[in-house]
Design a protein that fits this description.
The protein is α/β, with parallel strands linked by helices and 269 residues long. The chain contains eight helices and 15 strands. A hairpin with a 7-residue loop joins strand 13 and strand 14. The N and C termini lie far apart (57 Å).
Length: 269
């Protein structure tokens, strides 16, 4: 029932214009992943079973469970019959904080707020204001977008996953993570980025830009989020408040800047 691989090969019947063919096809896997802090289970998410250490760190930072990467002492990945456990050992003061505000968060694919027990918990507005004055050239955005597709190996195989990528100021994609869930892909990317010295840059997501995608970007201190699809109204308002340049409908030939256009070196007619 549970796979430890990020994809599987299955037998399918493909039909087109009344003609059907038996063949094999790759499908993406999603697995229940439990995040357990110092022996206490905190959340269960459905995720692609790859880059799980990055996921553990990125999720912990985005949720405010950790303030710094060095507060995570270790991650043990334990495969069970019904899923995967990520057993995190974290600093005692952060664990005490977690116990004080612990809540149930049973997640499912694409659901960023599942399990919130109140409206106050659902909208965890970040107390962050990004003051980075870096200006990005339009050419960097176009270059990063053009580089994405060949790097999405799981998407190429299955057609069923999202990706989040980190591009430097020149538009070079330095890091990319994939997952069946867009929030998970971003957590994985931000977790990996927290362990590396990648310099300044921006985040690209192949999904829409939800409120929580902006929230995670703000907590990570990133000044620009570029989405292939649309943002929500709440995402725009939070990005404006947090000082994030939010770009949507990003394609090689066009994009829409929703907030803080002063960070983009673009020509206006």
């Amino acid at each position: 029932m549970i796979s430890t691989s990020s994809f599987s090969l299955v037998n399918v019947t493909k039909c087109r214009l009344g003609s059907c063919t038996e063949l094999e096809d790759f499908v993406a896997e999603e697995v229940p992943v439990a995040l357990i802090y110092n022996g206490i289970s905190h959340a269960v998410m459905l995720a692609s079973p790859q880059d799980l250490e990055d996921f553990a760190l990125g999720f912990s930072l985005a949720e405010g469970i950790l303030n710094e990467p060095n507060q995570l002492y270790g991650v043990e990945v334990v495969h069970q019959d019904n899923g995967i456990e990520l057993r995190l050992e974290i600093a005692a003061e952060r664990f005490h904080m977690l116990k004080d505000r612990r809540r149930s968060m049973a997640g499912r694919t694409g659901c960023g707020l599942c399990g919130a027990e109140s409206l106050a918990q659902a909208l965890r507005l970040p107390d962050v204001r990004i003051e980075n004055s870096r200006v990005f050239d339009e050419a960097a955005i176009k270059k990063s977008l053009a580089s994405l597709e060949p790097l999405q190996h799981l998407q190429i195989k299955t057609g069923a996953t999202h990706a989040s990528a980190w591009a430097d100021v020149d538009g070079n994609v330095l890091m990319l993570r994939e997952d069946v869930g867009r929030h998970n892909a971003l957590d994985k990317l931000l977790g990996a980025r927290a362990k590396a010295d990648l310099g300044d840059g921006f985040v690209i997501t192949t999904s829409r830009a939800s409120y929580e995608m902006v929230q995670k970007t703000a907590v990570a201190g990133v000044s620009m989020l570029i989405a292939i699809s649309a943002p929500t109204g709440l995402a725009i308002r939070v990005a404006e408040q947090c000082g994030i340049s939010l770009v949507g409908f990003a394609r090689a030939e066009q994009y829409v800047v929703y907030t803080h256009p002063e960070r983009l070196n673009i020509k206006k007619k």
